[in-house]
Amino acid sequence: MTVGLETRLREVLGKKTADALADGLGLETAGDLLGHYPFRYAQRGERTDLASLGIGDDVTVAAQVRAAVKKTFTPRSGKGRGRGGRGELLEVIVADEAGRSLTLTFFNQGWRAKELVAGRWGLFAGKVAQFRGRLQLNSPQYQLLAEDADDPASAIEEFAGTLIPVYPATAELPTWNIAKAVHTVLGLVPSPPDPLPAPLRDRLGLLDYGTALHQIHRPESHEYLGAAKKRLKWQEALVMQTVLVRRKAESAGEAADPYPEGGAILDAFDARLPFDLTAGQRQVGAEIAAELAREHPMHRLLQGDVGSGKTLVALRAMLQVVAHGGQAALLAPTEVLAAQHHRSIAEMLGDLANGGQLGAPPEATQVVLLTGSATAAQRRPVLDAVKTGAAGIVIGTHALLYEGVEFANLGLVVVDEQHRFGVEQRDALRAKANKPPHTLVMTATPIPRTVAMTVYGDLETSRLTELPAGRSPIATHVVPYGDGRWMQRTWTRIREEVAAGRQAYVVCPRVGGDDTDDPNIGDKRPPLAVTDVIEELRGNQLHGLRLGLLHGRLDADEKDRVMRAYAAGDLDVLVATTVIEVGVNVPNATAMVVLDAERFGISQLHQLRGRVGRGSHPGLCLLVSEAMEGTPSRERLDAVASTTDGFALAELDLEQRREGDVLGAAQSGMKSHVKLLSLLKDADIIAASRTEAAALIDADPELKRFPEFAALVDDLAADRGEFLEKG
């Protein structure tokens, strides 16, 4: 039987196995299965690091049976009782050569002692638990390896000799069953067509596709395994970068309205600035101004650390467009952030935002806000101003995407925190322009270079790294939640800041009520809720201070009322969730307490911390946590406390988190197409593949010479290409 990569697994493996692979892992074709690579390789006799196992982990370990002991016990209930009302427990101790041990427990399965004899090696799969201080697997699945490694019919041969592939598996579908399925399919698939262009493959000395597939699943040696991984990583990187390069080339051919540099309203705004732009703001501003003046749409990513002045740079770009008859739309992910942008931009512009009013300068425009919670009466004048072009700057949330929002001449789309928007939402705003608009994507989360190359590779990238004059330093400390003296001092510091005429934030991980959907709770207490914490603070630690409450469930009017009161100094402390994470700017706020800080990521903590120290007084951020010294959670907090360099923290974040999380679920097909490539370890391959992709597209834009490679590129483009249409 000849099997191709598109052959359905049901035709090859039978209904039961095929259904298990499809239901449990989403693998439906031979190509899907062969693309389900092992995530590690066990080796008989190697030192498996049993000490690294974590409670609750689903693991597959290679270990040797050291002892098996039968015990009897009386169950607390009828469940688990054998004959005579007593149960039988089989405890099996397995260990690696370094002496690290693990206990396997089987209830009323004493017969397993006949095969789990001392000296036998095996693969054992299950969830790690702890009992009386010892790690154990309860009723694990297992596959024993042959006693004689030279026996060709043994499990050793079945699991590829000395290197045993361990696959991402499920409880119902252990790794050895997947390995058997892969072995069957590999034997039926002839050498598949190689999608990589032959000249490139030969020049780089890469394995052919068929050999790479065999060696990744059944490696003859570590050397062959390394060569297989290199070849398959190159394929992933080159396909991805070719999609990005082709998108960039296509957008360069589009026609957009040009907006010359300078202009009356921009010149008037610059003349009023009470401070000098930083060197970075001047340089990035010049890059953007030059691109806006061209007849092809700008596609630029503006990233900068907390407080680096991205909004000012974006505003100057918007004013350049407005000065020459265009409109600019700023799309924000939350109503709090949209309202904050509206307030800050209106304040910066002064009477330049009073277009159409008596006494306004002739070059003035209108700055309007549109959110989903606006009433019909509130929306009507805004929609009219947008449609007629009287509103040069339009700020809003997803409400900008609705039917009925018509622009007179949309020339620039600014997307703030773009990763929070879906493909359809971004495309809906672009579709409201007469011609392809210029696009500026802003992110307040510093992005590691390899992530920017991978996710934003079709955008020109600008970085703001220096802080404007007047920004104050921020001191960050980790506070142990269980230490009463430290906690008392924490709240005393907040009172001291308020007594000095300044303000503070208290941040909690959740709102309250039934929102206990944190997947990391486990057996721990629920995360602290903002609705509970504010009552506790009012009655005890911060009694007598003026406290305000802010979270995402409040209606828009209440959110706006609270933020205005806080900005005006009518509240001493704002107790909030992460709705304040980005964009909120209250220069008088100097202190922040983050409760349950271990439940936040590195980048999120850095963004939260950026809400303080925005004025002339130093900032203070106190990270309150139950995390113990030496744990990964505590190390993460200590890292945040040790530096305010967001780009350094972004690299650390990439090291500590799963890269799929960094890329984000919104990246559509990214996860399914990138399986081996590491953003952290394979920067050289990513960079080199970028150069190769550019050369391929330059020589053959349609990739007609390499149809198999073109098919992979088209597949990825269809899966996530729309995501790459930034804005």
From TrEMBL:
Domain Helicase ATP-binding, residue spans: 291-464
Pfam families linked to this entry: DEAD (PF00270), Helicase_C (PF00271), RecG_dom3_C (PF19833), RecG_wedge (PF17191)
Record key words, sorted: ATP-binding, DNA damage, DNA repair, DNA-binding, Helicase, Hydrolase, Nucleotide-binding
Top-rank lineage group of the source organism: Bacteria
Any one GO molecular-function label of the UniProt entry: hydrolase activity
Entry-linked PROSITE patterns: HELICASE_ATP_BIND_1 (PS51192), HELICASE_CTER (PS51194)
Ranges of residues in domain Helicase C-terminal: 486-655
InterPro entries reported for this sequence: DEAD/DEAH_box_helicase_dom (IPR011545), Helicase_ATP-bd (IPR014001), Helicase_C-like (IPR001650), NA-bd_OB-fold (IPR012340), P-loop_NTPase (IPR027417), RecG/Mfd (IPR047112), RecG_dom3_C (IPR045562), RecG_wedge (IPR033454)
One record GO biological process: DNA repair
CDD domains in alphabetical order: DEXHc_RecG, RecG_wedge_OBF
Name of this chain's protein: Probable DNA 3'-5' helicase RecG
Originating organism: Glycomyces artemisiae
Lineage, broadest ranks: Bacteria, Bacillati, Actinomycetota, Actinomycetes, Glycomycetales
